[in-house]
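Worked Example 4.2. Consider the chain below.
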Amino acid sequence: MKAFVFPGQGAQFVGMGKDLYDQSPVAKEYFEKANEILGFRITDLMFNGTADDLRQTKVTQPAVFLHSVISAIVLGDEFKPDMVAGHSLGELSALVAARALTFEDGLKLVSRRAMAMQKACELEASTMAAIIALPDEVVEEVCESITDHVVVPANYNCPGQIVISGDIAGVDRACEILKERGAKRALRLNVGGAFHSPLMRPAAEDLQVAINETAFAEPVCPVYQNVNAYPQTDPAAIKENLKAQLTAPVRWTQTVKNMITDGATEFVELGPGDVLKGLIKKVSSEVLVH
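Applying the procedure from the previous section yields the following structure tokens:
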């Protein structure tokens, strides 16, 4: 069985999507449609902008989404997923690719999500850090032990790699303790804020309104969602899980394991970069990844 997966924020690069735009009339049509919907020429920033341009959340999230979804559209009949999943932002790409959401509605939600997250980041100084080579339970235990600050596991990326998220003092203290507990690395990430933590609550509330106003259909295949790593096809359940996503951890390790348990033998990453390929290989060496 074939699983298609879609990356999240951080996968962007200067020039992303230009080959699609130049080589495919269908891709060009969708990119131009996106420029109209967003009200600015995101293609100019994607193809010719600077790394700093692409780091703006209002640009990054739609850019990664567009590259991912248009890659699926361009595949045409070759895009025959038995299951799909996306990492954080990538979940919206997966939902559009699996036709639970229209392209237009998906892009509007991504844009709203980006703006809401940007606003939440500006409310309080916050950050994230990658923790390498410790069991999940140790990271969870250390985060729970810090009660006077916000710090939580945010991304379960693969065995031995968790990203934590919270206010700056909380994340710094957790990093110190985790290094003492044997982490090979506890490294602050260059991100705008504490994604997938309680500090994203204002953004989640804003996004929930937008999700409630958006029509969801039954996807063409199961969508494995971040909040619980389980497959879902019911539109109402998909909406509820999506609403919880911004303040809940991304359970990517468990998602990949569940997809393999359910029969996935081949994973295809669609979108910029190849971060997910590397993570999937660390979860299992038994599956084909490309």
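The first strand starts at residue 2 and ends at 6. The domain at 2-122+198-289 is CATH 3.40.366.10 (Malonyl-Coenzyme A Acyl Carrier Protein; domain 2). Compare this with Example 4.1 before moving on.
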